[in-house]
Design a protein that fits this description.
Layout (H helix, E strand, L loop, with lengths): L3 E7 L3 H13 L5 E4 L16 E2 L6 H19 L12 E5 L1 H16 L5 E4 H7 L11 H6 L6 E5 L3 E2 L2 H14 L3 E3 L3 E9 L15 E9 L4 E10 L5 H5 L8 E12 L5 H5 L12 E3 L6 E5 L4 E5 L23 H15 L8 E12 L6 E5 L2 E5 L9 H12 L4 E4 L3 E4 L18
Helix pairs in contact: 1-6, 1-10, 2-10
Bound molecules: flavin-adenine dinucleotide.
Flavin-adenine dinucleotide binds next to helix 1, strand 9, helix 7, strand 12 and strand 16.
């Protein structure tokens, strides 16, 4: 390993590899190293993700960041012919009257910005999804859980799923082809801060000296101090570990999130998986139920559904997460007692369905406004705070990191979309809050 780099990126999740790819592409002569404590790219929360994408946000910042990333991912698969498992299956939000009317102003705003939406009435949905329960009548259990009826649905056709492992491999391979390097199984233990001009006096740096990040002290294949002109921190849920010791607020807190893979093969669920009428693929979209954000998506290549749930209140924040994500296990009881009763009430075909696999990962919340951040502090660039939607915005964030590196006021996102780089920082932050959450 060389000991001196132009840029060291800490973290090889989607944020790190997208940043490394754009940095190397636009600064080809720079020596760039990506370090990660895992053995391959995308082994952190990126690899545990549901990897869904949508452009249907109320915040124009979220719209821009995700729309442009979706367009780039579509280009990778359709034009560059690299399979990243992208399927535009769509998102289908099922709602009752009250939810529909609360959503209407946001939907109008999205349409004004060119986001395509399709409104489905109840009869329409009954025809498309004949096995779905839309009204609960005198069902006591449904009343106990406060399940709203399904009065309509909102469908986003430019939404879908991709394979996060294939996506990070695309970025990583291109980065290596361009001359970039990875150091896996390598832990960044600390960011070394020192005086820009070293005087050789004990106790440096003093407050009257200019300070910057000199490099990264690592433990792994080698135990050494790697010097860098610029450090990009893309450490996801673990960012506080490196930032707090040097007095920079990481603005992130982690929360556990779970996914449950339900076998459809050989059960009644198989025909639901292949529901026709929503997309050209003849697959069910991601369906979001009107209660508690319970949602499920078809994984057609494995004949499964992946089921998840919005799980905000009464789920603890974690300031400094464990390094080993296996310490965060999915809870069978959470599925059986919290998620399943809602799921099976709307879609009785899930009755007695079998959990094939389950796992957990961490959302990395920006506790200020749940939108991602990217900021530069001297020669340190920090990207993160994805708050559960980092894959769908990954490409845009990688481009913004590159613009921060080159100290440009404006990044050009895919599709020649301009975006002011200071918008996602904390000093001159200027983002619209998201109001349309799952
Ligand atoms: C269950 C679940 C479902 C999700 N669903 C979606 C979804 O549908 N759509 C979507 O867009 N997003 C989703 N997300 C969120 C998405 O996974 C994240 O936004 C994204 O993966 C964050 O990428 P990242 O690169 O910041 O973090 P990570 O992928 O976690 O990468 C950070 C990397 O940094 C490394 N690292 C950190 N500190 C150090 C250090 N000191 N030394 C060396 N290496 C270090 C870690 O090893 C890790 O590999 C989901 C997340 C979960 C958990």
């Amino acid at each position: 390993m060389q000991a001196r780099y132009d840029i060291i990126v800490v973290g090889a999740g989607i944020m790190g590899v997208a940043s490394a790819y754009h940095l190397k592409k636009n600064n080809p002569s720079k020596r760039i190293l990506v370090v990660d404590r895992f053995g391959a790219p995308g082994q952190g929360n990126t690899g545990r993700s549901n990897a869904m994408f949508r452009n249907t946000f109320s915040s124009t910042d979220n719209q821009t960041l995700s729309n442009s990333s979706i367009d780039f991912y579509t280009d990778v698969q359709d034009v560059q012919k690299v399979d990243i498992g992208l399927q535009k299956i769509g998102y289908l939000w099922l709602m009752d009257e009250a939810q529909l009317s609360r959503s209407e102003p946001f939907l109008v705003g999205m349409e004004k910005n060119g986001i395509e939406l399709i409104r489905h009435g109840r009869e329409d949905l009954r025809r498309l999804l004949p096995g779905m329960v839309t009204e609960f009548g005198s069902n006591e259990e449904a009343a106990l859980m406060g399940l709203p009826p399904v009065d309509g649905g909102i469908f986003g056709p430019k939404c879908g799923r991709l394979d996060p492992d294939k996506l990070v491999r695309f970025y990583a391979n291109e980065f290596i082809k361009a001359g970039g390097a990875f150091a896996f199984n390598t832990e960044a233990r600390a960011l070394a801060v020192g005086p820009s001009k070293r005087l050789g006096i004990e106790g440096e740096p003093f407050v009257w000296q200019d300070v910057s990040v000199e490099g990264v002290s690592v433990r792994g294949a080698t135990n050494e101090m790697l010097q860098a002109e610029t450090v990009v921190l893309a450490g996801g849920a673990w960012e506080n570990e490196l930032l707090e010791p040097i007095g920079i607020d990481g603005h992130v807190k982690a929360k556990k999130r779970q996914l449950f893979s339900i076998q459809a093969k050989g059960t009644k669920l198989e025909s639901l998986l292949h529901a026709v009428g929503f997309n050209p693929l003849g697959l069910l979209p991601l369906v979001i139920l009107p209660k508690a954000g319970v949602h499920f998506k078809p994984v057609s290549e494995e004949n499964d559904f992946w089921v998840a749930c919005e799980d905000e209140v009464n789920r603890q924040f974690i300031d400094l997460p464990e390094h080993d994500l296996e310490r965060y296990q999915a809870e069978r009881e959470y599925y059986e007692k919290s998620v399943y009763p809602i799921l099976v009430s709307y879609f009785p075909d899930f009755k007695d369905s079998r959990i094939k696999a389950m796992w957990a990962g961490l959302y990395s919340y920006n506790t200020l406004d749940n939108l991602p951040f990217a900021f530069r502090e001297r020669n340190l660039i920090v990207v993160g705070g994805d708050s559960g939607s980092g894959i769908m915005k990954g490409d845009s964030l990688g481009r913004i990191v590159d613009s921060l590196y080159r100290e440009e006021d404006e990044a050009l996102l895919y599709g020649e979309v301009p975006y002011r780089t200071s918008k996602l920082g904390f000093k001159r932050r200027d983002v619209e809050r998201e109001e349309w959450v799952i």
